[in-house]
Amino acid sequence: xxxxxxxxxxxxxxxxxxxxxxxxxxxxxxxxxxxxxxxxxxxxxxxxxxxxxxxxxxxxxxxxxxxxxxxxxxxxxxxxxxxxxxxxxxxxxxxxxxxxxxxxxxxxxxxxxxxxxxxxxxxxxxxxxxxxxxxxxxxxxxxxxxxxxxxxxxxxxxxxxxxxxxxxxxxxxxxxxxxxxxxxxxxxxxxxxxxxxxxxxxxxxxxxxxxxxxxxxxxxxxxxxxxxxxxxxxxxxxxxxxxxxxxxxxxxxxxxxxxxxxxxxxxxxxxxxxxxxxxxxxxxxxxxxxxxxxxxxxxxxxxxxxxxxxxxxxxxxxxxxxxxxxxxxxxxxxxxxxxxxxxxxxxxxxxxxxxxxxxxxxxxxxxxxxxxxxxxxxxxxxxx
Length: 384
Ligand code: MN
Known about the structure:
By secondary structure, this protein is α/β, with parallel strands linked by helices. The protein has two domains: 2-276, Aldolase class I (TIM Barrel, Alpha-Beta Barrel); 289-383, no CATH class. It has 16 helices and twelve strands. An eight-stranded parallel barrel has the order 2-3-4-5-6-7-8-9, surrounded by eight helices. It has a two-stranded parallel ribbon with strand order 1-10. Helix 3 (51-64) packs across helix 4 (78-88).
């Protein structure tokens, strides 16, 4: 099976989410968890942005840059590259990532440059970065709104200048899956086989994970993702979604992601929620509160008989204890009986039937019913 490498960019794009700021020591703590998760590449920051950013990259590179790839972002500017290289501190697996826009929108409005000038600037930057590291990634910013022939020409030139990874970001979340597939496929085919093409997708239209999957189907061998999907605006492709799709649907994608320790997902997700202060939505796939909660009686009954009936994923795979059966007005008597058993109250069939009617009347008034609520209701039921 083809292996796809995860490049976790939570510490860089994730940190660029409005209001998020990871202190260098927090970056170290996150990187430690990412290593436990098993990611082979971490993009640790944008060193020229601030002293704190430079320090964060330095901490992470010092601690982990021997074992896994630690990447630092730069614009196609010599000073950026020098500061990035300094932050990486000669870590054996330090990677310099050079970013330059390739769309006419970026060339005209950001750089006031012609396509030819943009190409030359990219090539010179890649060549300069190679003086500091053998591992250079070139990112064609706004690739999805770039002219395809020009994009390919820039990527080819950057590979000749020494880039070994080519990243094709959907910077503004513009692409749809079929289109992203076609673009990645065209670039993969144009470049020599030793080059790794990488996805990088934003979620402005809710398509970041779908686009990332289309990208790896098209031949990208690296995927840039963030924990909880945090990142610029509404974020990036979320790491846990991408990983669990490939795991749950290995039969379809046939992509090897087995180096990831998925049981660590919940832990790192909670850590990022805490340190970023971005709350995970109840209905967020994989890590949202609702992911393994069941209230409806039909579903609970099915789950008790066999989990496959109403749940695709095994909660243990993401580091949770098990399914959570919520007892509420929609729950059936079967679920109630099971729940009573775990509290230590055994009911016979007749009692179960009567208590479940009483329970439903009273449960309708409350949203979430705790074990204490059930005991209390059962006491009331007995006193009638
Ligand atoms: Mn981005």
